[in-house]
């Protein structure tokens, strides 16, 4: 329930035309130091390759990502965030910041700081779990 409420709140504040899935992929790519394959991204987001391909196609049409073939294996592709994708991601973060600030004021800075390590551990445990 908390996840649904948070997603709905964030989705409402994203820049026009950006979906939460777009922001999530852009944010992931912005934090990465290397290109990712669509299969790697699908696995990271626990999506089918088809669903990730659909999201990447929309991001490419918007000019937010560059998709290039693997020069060693033409069947594979690599994805990187573009400068305009980084700007769109930054604009989305700017739009989301007031929500986070309000929640932090409501819950208190210390409580938010206390829960963040637990959430990080939970995310890492879920990423490791292939079941």
The gist of it:
This protein has helices at 2-13, 20-31, 38-44, 49-61, 83-107, 109-128, and strands at 65-69, 77-81. By secondary structure, the protein is mostly helical.
Average pLDDT over all residues = 91
Strand content: 5-15%
CATH topology label: Arc Repressor Mutant, subunit A
- Low-pLDDT regions: none
Give the overall silhouette.
globular
The structure class reads mainly alpha
Spatial gap, N to C terminus? 22 Å
* Main β-sheet description: 2 strands, antiparallel
Q: What is the CATH C-level name? A: Mainly Alpha
Number of strands: 2
The H-and-E topology, N to C, reads as: HHHHEEHH
C-alpha Rg (nearest Å): 16 Å
The number of distinct structural domains comes to 1
- Label the CATH architecture: Orthogonal Bundle
Number of helices: 6
General description of the model:
- By secondary structure, this protein is mostly helical.
- It has one domain: Winged helix-like DNA-binding domain superfamily/Winged helix DNA-binding domain (Arc Repressor Mutant, subunit A), CATH 1.10.10.
- It is 68% helix and 8% strand.
- It has six helices and two strands.
- It has helices at 2-13, 20-31, 38-44, 49-61, 83-107, 109-128; strands at residues 65-69, 77-81.
- The chain has a two-stranded antiparallel sheet.
- Helix 2 (20-31) packs across helix 5 (83-107) and helix 3 (38-44) packs across helix 4.
- The two termini are 22 Å apart.
- The mean pLDDT is 91.
